[in-house]
Amino acid sequence: MNVFFVLSIGMFAALLLQYFKLGLDFNFWWLYLYCALGLVAIYLVKFVTLKFIGWIFQVSDSTDAYIFIVFATNKIIGIALLPFLVMLAFTYGVVNEAAMSLSIMVVCALLVYRFFLSYVSIRRQIRIGFLHFLLYLIAFEIVPLLLINKLLFSFLGETY
Prior knowledge:
The protein is mainly alpha-helical. The protein has one domain (2-130).
């Protein structure tokens, strides 16, 4: 299921880039491969870092619970995006725009749900305040996405 998640989100990212007219210099399948490999690299680094931090600070149970929530939600996202991928790949016009909007909303809603579940789960096991969790969220979830976004735009040659 993790491989299915990588393939599904990789396809979604490639279709998203094409929808926003980015990466048009690349063949679609190369773009898809780059997106999938980038996703594998991101989640592999995240997994190893969380395991290492759990081992160092002796909170392996908490990090294992967080890793479980992240990967379980990722599997749900991969399955939930499947009908949207079909619509994004084979439609155009209003249907394509609606599918893109709905798929982005579904992904965002599932990510917010993942963050909520993570906070509730971690709060039960470790004394952590909302501010500390928010700092973690910004430092390890949002800032890397912004850096990847910046790198992606510079790699694809688009500046906004």
